[in-house]
Amino acid sequence: MKKIVSVVLIMMFVVLAGCSQKETSSTGNAELDKVISEKEDYKASDYVTLCDYSSIPVDTSVTSDEIQQEIDAFVSSNSMEKIMEGKAKDGDTVNIDYEGSIDGVKFDGGTAQGADLVLGSGSFIPGFEEGLVGVEVGETVDVNTKFPDEYPNSPDLAGKEAVFKVTINYIVGEADPNAKFDDALVKKATNGEYKTADEYKEMIEKNLKETKKNSMGQEALYYVINNSTVSDYPEFLYDAMLLRMDASYKYMSQQYGYDDFSKFISEVWMITDEEYDTQLKEMAVDYTKEMLLYEAIAEKEGFEVTEEEYNTEITNYLESNQMETVEELKEYFVTNYASELETIVNESIIINKVTELLSSRAVEK
Length: 365
Known about the structure:
The chain is built from eleven helices and nine strands. By secondary structure, it is α+β, with helices and mostly antiparallel strands. Helix 2 packs across helix 4, helix 6 packs across helix 8 and helix 8 crosses helix 11.
């Protein structure tokens, strides 16, 4: 059974569900209003036992298994059969060059060469992948698309019609089971940048080490989550998280061009409505507990949100979403994430403060 994609902290907007202040105003979302009406004062520390995070050990060593996984992936990706004839069909992995333009002008992020794409995966905006089904290998076509009206990845493109000139270079076949990680493969796959397998292996180890060092802050956060204990949680926090996650997934499905959510989860995630409900509830519990950990640390450290920090964050949200007024922003989050703007802004600031603190406590071992 496949798993639904995690959207918690989706686009940096999903945050702690709770706050100690009761709200009385209507948001226009009956389910959200019900959760708001059930809010109650609580202390996260009553539910959370924090581990010692004064100095957080983070392992940055690179194992032989990790290096071998990278080698295996390299060999597999560079020994795939290139099918140079035939028509692309749904489910095929195709290697493509593409160049996107709006009103005849190329835009940032709309051009790539040698990109692999699984047709039907929903990786690209609606209409792009569908426009390549039935296209011959070697053929160049113009694919007419329209960016979703809400497109947080690049708000400048939201709602705009675009034309992509796409060439299918080849259809990706099966990997050669007899391919070996040797000097010849390395030299060919890297166009001579690396001449020996040993040289390429050294690069892999170096990059893995650098990646681990750069992610020490995130690993420190995982350490605290895994070594602290959450005994329980307020029910309304769980209800708020469940509502928020469900709204986020349904909003995601719209960005993929689906009006029918059941069709979206069956075709994209290949799960049933019942499986979705089960997984959603499990994830809501996990992330409700995780959010309580943030709150507990904030309580212990005395973190608060200043008026200046709040106003700065509001300005950032307005700019990133290309909106003029706070009222627009409030409606956006209520409609698409079943969340109150005030809660989102306050708690995102707290999350950033906690994350920065834990990052500063990370110690390489």
